[in-house]
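Whiteboard transcription, Tuesday session. T.W. wrote the structure tokens on the left side:
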């Protein structure tokens, strides 16, 4: 990503791997060239076949469907004010953990079509972060 110095830092996986490419507008996953398995967040070693040198970075589809969601009614450590919805989106056969945005928290139901978006979030102690969210697809 080519971000300006005053732009929010992108949220990363616990191991420091990029979760998304905001410039390209996609979530980033790993594809094992040996066994074909996919992983999100990205991995350097395939958990199925153990290959180290054959992991490729891939961009996932921008649209998917809600797999599961729940409404959170307490303030998050990242600074989300309640109520808000978290859950899993199915993208290209993978489940991606995400916050839902752009609708009432209770409105995200399994099977609903959603699309990737990015939002800035003020995170206590870390400043501005760029995070991924999924919004309802407007027909
Ligand atoms: Zn593999």
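and on the right, the sequence the group agreed on:
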């Amino acid at each position: 990503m080519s971000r300006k110095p005053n732009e929010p830092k992108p949220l990363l996986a616990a191991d420091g791997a990029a979760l998304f490419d905001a410039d390209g507008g996609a979530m980033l996953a790993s594809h094992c060239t040996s066994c074909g398995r996919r992983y999100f967040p990205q991995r350097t070693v395939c958990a199925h076949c153990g290959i180290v040198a054959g992991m490729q970075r891939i961009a996932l589809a921008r649209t998917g469907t809600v797999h599961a969601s729940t409404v959170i009614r307490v303030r998050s450590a990242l600074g989300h004010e309640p109520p808000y919805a978290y859950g899993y989106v199915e993208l290209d056969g993978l489940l991606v953990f995400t916050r839902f945005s752009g609708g009432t928290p209770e409105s995200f139901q399994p099977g609903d079509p959603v699309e990737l978006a990015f939002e800035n979030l003020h995170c206590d102690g870390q400043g501005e972060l760029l995070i991924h969210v999924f919004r309802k697809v407007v027909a």
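Someone added at the bottom: The pocket of zinc ion is lined by residues 32, 34-35, 37, 46, 48-49, 51 (CB under 6 Å).
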